[in-house]
Amino acid sequence: MSEVLLVSKDDLEIPVSYEAAIISPVLKGMLSGPFLEEHPIKIELKDIEPQVLAKVVEYLEYCSTYRNVGENDDIPEFDVPTEMSLELLLVADYLNI
Amino acid sequence: MFKIQIRSPAGLGDKTGSTFDASWKILEDAIEMIFSGRSSELSFEVLFRTVYSVVLRKQGEQLYERIHDAIDRKLRSVKTSSLNVKSTSLLDDILHAWNVQRESLRVISDVTMYLDKVYCKESRKPFVYDMGIDLFHNIIMKSSKDQLYGLIMGQINNARQSIADVDFQQLKYLVEMMETVANTSDTYFLAEFEPFLLRETQAFYSRVAEEYEGELFTYPSTVETLLTKEQEIDAKFLGDSVRLKISKEIRGALISENIQFVGMQVLPSILDSNRFTELKLLFELCDNSNDRKKIWKHLSQCITKEGLNINEDLTLKKKSQVAVRWIAEVIKLNEKYEGFFNTLPTSEPNGLKYINEATSAFLNQNGKTSAEYLAIYIDSMLRLPSEEGDMTKDRLGKSVKVFRLLRQKDVFEKLYHQQLSKRLLQQRSSLESEKNFLAIMEEEAGAMFALKPDGMFRDLLLSQSNNQKFRQSYNVPFEFEMSVLTSTCWPFQQTSSEKEVALPPALEKLKLDYENYYLKAYSGRALKWAYHLGSIEIGFQFSKSYHIITMPVFAAIILMLFEDYDELNMQEIFDLTHIPEQELMRNLLTIAVAPKTRLLKKQPLSKRILPTDRFRLNYSFSAPTTKVKVLAILYKGDFDGQFNPRSSDSLQDLAKERIRCVEACIVRALKFATKMYHDPLYQKVRENLANRFEVSSTMFQKSLDKLLEREYVQRDPDECTLYHYLP
């Protein structure tokens, strides 16, 4: 269960680690609930543009890497491309991140 | 200037087509599937997206209502189909329904996460999960509440009585269920079930207490067993805080509610059988300070009763033996409870006070007798030969403790002084142990107490050195010791016999010599002779044996008359000696009637002495030892003699002294405050004299009246309860 595949609009599969995925309660619900998604470790999110989903995955990984780091350590800024911000906002809302 | 272009999002969710009803259809089916445990056939993503789109279309409220209704319907059908209120498996059924409900709700709420997040938060509705739980509570639990409670309680009570096997696992699940279900702000368990549980528990144990049939004194340990058992049972399915409450409730039911029973029946029974471990347990079981106070009160009543039950063993011949035994019992009693007190944890700071108060109470119910007995006890302790020093010391220390509890301390003081003086003059105790004891007493009762005894010791020392000097400068034909006593220090009444007693010539000369010597040494002092305190030793060859007889001075004077006369009657003796009639009577009785010391023969033989009775020497006197001690016998009239404060003489003395004390105290208090109202004044006087005796209001009033009469104190002309000090 270490890796989960997120499938975007163009059937592009983006891998994300389980630890990062469960930061989103929605993804967590999908992964842990007794639903269809449980067996193939593949989550279809066909409404989402691939580059946006890639950014989301990047963010999730970023979070899971740094969430347990103490305050004093250096945390690099997370870069959000401006033109993508609205789309990201929407996805974030959807995934409840 | 940059112009940042933000791509407009394409938007998520199914914007096209599908109406609310279509979406709802999907969800409704899904709910149905979830409840029947087939959720693995559903796609989370699809459902989630459906909810998402519905909410996006601002149809959240509708959706929420629909879900609510759907769950509601579902539960009602469960209730009618599978929950039979009268069924014995109701508990199981409820649990089953609960588990299904919980599981389903969890899934549903996962799916409707977006609804919760967007709609519920904004419109302040409970989340879907909580709503479901709430429905469960309203539909299932409310309707079967009575049966549910009844069954649970039945199980618990069965466990308490170890009647049947109890499914604790089930109970545990039920409790969990109730803890999950929320009712307003508290969990259902806290708000509804816990009070019920506590009430029932209380009722159960009240019944246990009512039906208690075991030995009274094992009640505390029975309670403890019940408590541990309950703890064991509760630990299997209840949380900590409830367990604490339950155990409190049980203690309440078994002890607080029954405090009367515990205090009036259990406690005496425990004490009767001396089961102090039970008593200790009882205190440990009482976690309520009020209860403990009540128990202490009962305990102190019991102690008092026990103390009053210590009988003066009147079968013993001598009063001193009675007294010694009685005080020993008192000390034992007090020690017993103090010992018990010391086993208690330190959280009982007042315990000792109660014990001592109880002891004090019965000591004082016995009034002056207690003080008297204590004095006698100490007297006989000090008279013991000093070899047993340590034990005596120990006992004396303990008797000081009794003294501390005594309220009529002045009675004791008076008696102690009297007895001390006797011991000193008759040299019946070692001066050292007397001084030691006095030091202890001084510490306990203050310097005033030791004032007179110190005077006595001083007199004796001085007299000894005077005796030596006297013997050096005068011709002393036989062993002779004088004690010159300062009259204020010694508690004897002055004997002012109108006519000087005629002494035998040898003694008379000695007396004059000593007076001569003393007045030379200390001019300006008057010597008075107190014959009745002295004693004389005479050696005499009786027909069978030689005896050295120690006897009171008066007896010796009488006896020595028979050097010159063969036979005398009482009147003649009186004429020759001028011994006061009372003393004469007494001494004649001593040496002519008392069976063991019959030095004179009396004609006719009878128990009384008449002026015409004739006396002559009893040459046939004999005794088992060479040394014989003649003890002055006491009059029938004041049989108990000067020992006894009940005899009217010393009683009056005492009363007078007390009034003097009260008067002095009033004047002191008023002088300090210039004016005072009646009640505070009374209070103050009481407090000040509390360590000597209790001031009764009549005594106080009497003293005050006297002071008013003698114009030491003036009543305020306007306020009759205000008193002024008159300088």
From TrEMBL, chain A:
GO cellular component: nucleus
Location of this chain's protein in the cell: Nucleus
Swiss-Prot/TrEMBL keywords: Nucleus
GO biological process, one term: ubiquitin-dependent protein catabolic process
Keyword NADP: no
Keyword flag Nucleus: yes
Top-level taxon: Eukaryota
Pfam families xref list: Skp1_POZ
Annotated SUPFAM superfamilies: POZ domain
Record-annotated SKP1 component POZ domain positions: 4-62
Family membership: Belongs to the SKP1 family.
Protein name from the UniProt record: Elongin-C
Automatic annotation (TrEMBL), chain B:
Sample GO molecular function, one term: ubiquitin protein ligase binding
SMART domains named among the record's database cross-references: CULLIN, Cullin_Nedd8
BP-aspect Gene Ontology terms: ubiquitin-dependent protein catabolic process
Pfam families recorded: Cullin, Cullin_AB, Cullin_Nedd8
Highest taxon of source: Eukaryota
Xref: InterPro entries: Cullin, Cullin-like_AB, Cullin_homology, Cullin_homology_sf, Cullin_N, Cullin_neddylation_domain, Cullin_repeat-like_dom_sf, WH-like_DNA-bd_sf
Residues covered by the Cullin family profile domain: 369-592
Record-stated family: Belongs to the cullin family.
Name the UniProt record assigns to this protein: LANO_0F06612g1_1
Organism name: Lachancea nothofagi CBS 11611
